[in-house]
Amino acid sequence: MLPLAAMMGGCADDSSPDAYNGTGALDVSLAIVAPEGLDVDGSAMPATGDFALTLTSAANGASHRWASFDDYEQGSGFTAGEYTVSAIYAPLNREGMPDALRPAFAAEEKAAISEGQTTSLLLRAQMTSAVVTVNASDGFITRFGNDAVTLHALNGGFVKPAGLAGEYNYLKAGSVGCGVTVEGAYGPLALMLQSNIETRSGELLPFNLDYDPTTLDLTATWGDDGATTIAVTKELLSARAPIVTVSADVLELTEHTSGDKPLTFTVEPSTSAPLANVFLSISSASLYEQGCPPYIDLAHPSESDLAFMKSVGMEVPRFEPGKTTVINLDNLIDNLEYRADGNNTTQMSISAVDAMRRTNTPVATSVVTLPAELAVESVSDAVIGVNRADITVVSPSQNPEKYLTVKTGDTTLPTGPGEPLGEGRYRISVTLPEGNEPVDVDILYNGVVKATATIRRVSPDYSVAIDAFATYAMLRIDMADDDLRDIVTDNLSVWIDGAQHPVYARDTERNAIYVMGLTPATRYSLRTSLLPRPSEKDPEFNFVTERAAQLPNPSFEDVKHTIELDKINSGGRYSQTYAEIYNWQNTSSFDEWTPTKWAMTNAKTFNKSARNMNTWYVQPSVVSTLDAMDADYGVELISVAFDPAGPEIAPYRQESEPYVRYSRNIPEIAYRAAGRIFLGSYSFDAASMTETYNEGLPFASRPTSLNGFYQYRPAAANPADRGLVEIELFGEENGREVVIASAKTRLSPATGYAAFNIPLSYNRFGIKATRIKVMFSSSDTPTGIATESINVKTDDDPVSATSIGSRLKLDNITLAY
Questions:
Q1: What b-and-e string marks burial along 151-190, b requiring 16 or more CB atoms within 10 Å of the CB?
Q2: 317: CB partners within 8 A, 6+ apart
Q3: Going along 402-497, which residue ranges are E strands?
Q4: 308: how many CB neighbours lie within 10 A of its CB?
Q5: DSSP string for residues in 688-753
Q6: How confident is the model over 531-556, as a mean pLDDT?
Q7: Interval 551-598: pLDDT, tens
Q8: What CATH number does domain 375-458 carry, 2.60.40.10, 3.40.50.300, 3.30.70.260, 3.20.20.70?
Q9: CATH 2.60.120 domain position(s) in the chain
């Protein structure tokens, strides 16, 4: 039962260090020191076995008590650390009060126990009682007899002295009083000689009593200069003293309860003099710990007395001349707490003293405090996120929640106000730490564990909708309680095909979580839970991931022979010399391949029905290229000048030597165009100069990005030009087509192949893709013949008789999932 985890048997000095296991040994010896200047009878002195020994840890307050010092096994082992060691001898009489015939002793020392070492400690027990003697003169004994004196330690009860000839009486140190009982007209009459003489432990206080039959003076002296005199006159003896009665002599009450009937003292003043003092004397270890003074003059309480009475809910009684006063102590005893050390008897007495120092016969009551029993009737579940549970307890104590604590391990949990349910039942609200595991709790009353319970966690009501992509899924959480949405989003676990699956990301703004690592085009079974494992109560969802579809001919390796034209004019006619004989004409042939499954703008820029088939007016804007990232082919997009109705070119006469082998005449070219490839189809009508882009293909997957490799060289006429990539995905919502993702990027100059990445995001939950658009352009300009003719810049080259601008090469276009 040792809270200190004492390991009896000690630690041998020759043990290996591992054998100590963080412990050391303690030897304790006890010396009983008789006070100097006092002749204490040896029979009154205790033996070591009369002492109780207590060891208390400074680290955590845990303690162990041996009822007899002799029961302690020397060399016992304890965890290394600081300790307080105390030995106490407090003799009690048959009534359970301090025994005035035997002195009390106590000792206390600090002990530092080191690992692997034996600590020796000497306790020197000093007397804690005050020694009071009574010496009565013959005149006193003749008048009052040998049994008239009563001693009163205000926090230790009433006792008859051992004798009137200087015998030692051992009273609790503190305030001491002395009274004498005389025979009055109404029977025995108690007179209070003095009520508050201060005494100290181990010191002697002599009382001397005398009576002068001539003057009728009863005189008491004490200490060095204390003295008081009462004239025992007929007037004094003819009236009765105040009368004090108590409603119960002995009570046994559960801590923090009062009896079925109020515990009261009734004070009736004497007939001939008002009350001067009403002393409430209290001997209670439990109340002392709460700041209770050993006695209170209820007729004249001090400021500190009033503060204590207020703290325990005790009313200040009013004493009016000639009127009986009832003093209710229920609120006081309601604060009594059971003590593990067994010191659970509270003694209370009231002495009422009138103005002529007549006092009542001592009246006292004893309250024995019993431990409160507490049972758990029910425990509610705690909703995850709310983290509160109700514990219904049954206890005889009034307002047990005031003294009840709930702990898990060493952590005290916050509790709310208790709700009385009747018949000793109370509902206590407790707040748990965040989590989803059951919580084992100890329910303590005044720091003592009275019951244990397990608080289960339950999930709040929520629903999950799944939007499955190719390699990941988005789970959207919906619930009625908005306050718990974020908590559920942050803590929900996901189980796929019976195994817990890691959560990649949590988005509290969208109340969504994401799971990655799925395989495309695969069927899965999914459950979610806020508990450590899902149960059959958690709904099961089945879903199929999307295919990881790619674009058609993404590496441009599939090509076809689309452009074949032999010997068309390249520029105008020119002379061989200065003579105006224009008999030279350059020609060019075209033999180009282009990628399949992509639409392109060659029908516009390389129009075979052009009026003037000349390289100034006819140029392909899209061709396959052998300059590939890998494998055989890439594709090249070229910004060009074109003119289906290009005018005749004037012949060129050589101006001087050296003569050139081409015409220097550059015609007016009406149009410019960016080279474009895209998914879909394209048509061009040269007669009306109109073009039609039918963009997009059916597509049922949602990629996370468009990636590829490119080279880019802008036109000299427009070095700020950039290549352009655009992608859009469409879905259907409420019967109409909507954009579900889109992105575009501008490609900067690159002399070698460089990578590009265009991320895609989807903000429309659950809308699947139905169509995709992808377009690449050699110039950063919107489509349209008029717009492109303004924005696209080209470089005129009379040598090749072409006007060509920016060039964009592409290869290995992929969609990531």
A1: bbbbbbbbbebbebeeebbbbbbbbbbbbbbbebeeeebb
A2: 278, 298, 325, 326, 327
A3: 404-408, 411-413, 419-422, 425-431, 439-445, 448-455, 457-458, 463-468, 473-478, 493-496
A4: 18
A5: TTEEEEEE-EE-----SEEEEEEEEE--TT-TT--EEEEEEEEEEETTEEEEEEEEEEEEPPEEEE
A6: 95
A7: 999 999 999 999 999 999 999 999 999 999 999 999 999 999 999 999
A8: 2.60.40.10
A9: 559-816
Q: Is the peptide bond before 317 cis (omega within 30 degrees of 0)?
A: no
The length of the chain is 817
Q: pLDDT, tens digit, for every residue of 43-77?
A: 899 999 999 999 999 988 888 999 999 999 999 99
**Arch. (CATH architecture) of 559-816:** Sandwich (2.60)
Mean pLDDT value across residues 486-498: 94
What pLDDT does residue 13 have? 45
- Given this structure, which CATH class describes domain 17-127? mainly beta
CA 265, CA 9: separation in Å to the nearest integer?
54
Burial class (CB in 10 A: 0-12, 13-18, 19+), 318: exposed
Please list, in sequence order, all residues whose beta carbon lies within 8 angstroms of the beta carbon of residue 25, skipping any fewer than 6 positions away. Answer: 10, 11, 75, 76, 77, 78, 113, 117, 118, 119
**What CATH number is given for 243-370 in this structure?**
2.60.40
Q: What CATH topology corresponds to 463-544?
A: Immunoglobulin-like (2.60.40)
> Beta strands of 238-315 (E only): which ranges?
243-246, 250-254, 264-268, 275-283, 295-297
